[in-house]
């Protein structure tokens, strides 16, 4: 599907039909005066469990645990059961921002295309990316063996993506992380085009430092990942839009759990290369990439986010308004370890 032109003017986004593919998309540059930039600032004051509000939160969990009057065996079973951390993360994420951008959600029945059966074997993904980019699979394959039996951190599958170290190897003379991110994003898109599948990049030549950057939360997540994984390819737990379908990009961002971050074009493009069957139908659920920010005409507003979608028989890359919710789109995201 493709985003409706009217959706970016705010005229019809609330009346979007759940199962109706959309007509040709908007030109983001023409709409930049309507855009409000995404908030990428970290909170000025961070509350921890040592503070009164944090102590109250912990006391509620403590009271519930004590009230249950668990036996030794029951307590062990509760502790051994995965999912508690995710429940707490989701509870915090859903309640920390109240109703911020709550009107930027629409009902959605869109799903992944039936050809997509979930994430492919991680070893296969790693080898595919290594071959496409001329990178080493060794570190990623070794790391994959250490996590084979571990539960997912919140995603629906495990995915291989080109790492920052891999990009540095491909662009050895580039020392500026911002420039490396732009070059890496463009390279991934070029690799998709080189597969000979029908592909259109509406932002060709526009992903430059003054117009395009990685989101601050995704940058922080990658800093954590690089402390745990080395090598040219990373393995992340992720979901490919279902969790946030029908939400605008900025609404999805405030709904992220504490360990969740938006995927950028390098990650999303890596997944498109290893899972071409994810993008094959105009009626499928398509993918916003909340891990990057785009501003048309280098105006500094950074009110757009990139996306991948299938339209007119081809995979399309574009960047569109972060405040527009559509049922056929959702933000893809990754999850760091707890």
Beta-strand residue fraction:
5-15%
Structural class: alpha+beta
Largest sheet: 5 strands, mixed
Strand order of the largest sheet: 2-9-8-6-10
Region (Disordered): 1-26
Topology:
Elements: H1 52-68, H2 72-80, H3 84-96, H4 122-133, H5 138-147, E1 157-162, H6 164-170, H7 177-194, E2 199-201, E3 212-214, H8 216-228, E4 233-239, H9 249-255, E5 260-262, H10 265-274, E6 286-288, E7 292-294, E8 304-311, E9 314-321, E10 329-331, E11 333-335
Parallel strand pairs: 2-9, 6-10
Antiparallel strand pairs: 1-4, 3-7, 4-11, 5-11, 6-8, 8-9
Helix pairs in contact: 4-10, 7-10
Region (Disordered): 1-26
Description:
With 338 residues, the protein is an alpha+beta fold. It has one domain (96-335). It is 34% helix and 15% strand. The longest helix has 18 residues, at 177-194. Residues 4-44 have low confidence and may be disordered.
Write a brief caption for the model.
By secondary structure, this protein is of the alpha+beta class.
Name the descriptors:
338 residues; alpha+beta; 5-stranded mixed β-sheet; 4-stranded antiparallel β-sheet; 10 helices; 15% strand; globular
């Amino acid at each position: 599907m493709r985003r409706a032109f009217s959706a970016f003017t705010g005229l019809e986004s609330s009346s979007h039909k759940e199962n109706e593919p959309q007509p040709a998309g908007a030109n983001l540059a023409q709409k930049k005066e309507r855009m409000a930039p995404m908030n990428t600032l970290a909170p000025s004051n961070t509350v921890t469990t040592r503070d009164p509000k944090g102590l109250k939160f912990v006391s509620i969990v403590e009271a519930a645990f004590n009230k249950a009057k668990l036996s030794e065996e029951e307590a062990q079973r509760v502790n051994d059961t995965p999912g508690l951390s995710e429940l707490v993360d989701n509870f915090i994420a859903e309640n920390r921002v109240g109703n911020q951008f709550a009107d930027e959600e629409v009902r959605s029945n869109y799903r992944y295309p039936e050809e997509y059966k979930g994430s492919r074997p991680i070893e296969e993904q790693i080898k595919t990316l290594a071959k496409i980019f001329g990178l080493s699979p060794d570190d990623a394959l070794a790391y994959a063996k250490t996590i084979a039996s571990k539960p997912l951190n919140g995603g629906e599958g495990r995915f291989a993506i080109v790492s920052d170290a891999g990009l540095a190897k491909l662009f050895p003379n580039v020392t500026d992380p911002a420039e490396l991110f732009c070059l890496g994003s463009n390279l991934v898109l070029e690799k998709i085009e080189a597969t000979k599948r029908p592909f259109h990049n509406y932002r060709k030549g526009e992903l430059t430092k003054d117009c395009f950057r990685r989101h601050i939360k995704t940058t922080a997540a990658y800093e954590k990942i690089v402390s745990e994984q080395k090598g040219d390819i990373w393995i992340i737990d992720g979901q490919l839009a279902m969790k946030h379908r029908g939400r605008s990009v900025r609404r999805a961002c405030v709904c992220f759990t504490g360990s969740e971050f938006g995927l950028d074009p390098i990650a999303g493009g890596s997944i498109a290369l290893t899972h071409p069957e994810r993008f094959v139908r105009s009626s499928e659920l398509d993918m916003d990439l909340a891990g990057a920010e785009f501003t048309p005409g280098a105006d500094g507003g950074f009110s757009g986010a990139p996306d991948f979608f299938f339209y007119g028989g081809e995979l399309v890359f574009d960047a569109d308004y972060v405040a527009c919710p559509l049922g056929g789109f959702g933000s893809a995201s990754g999850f760091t370890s707890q």
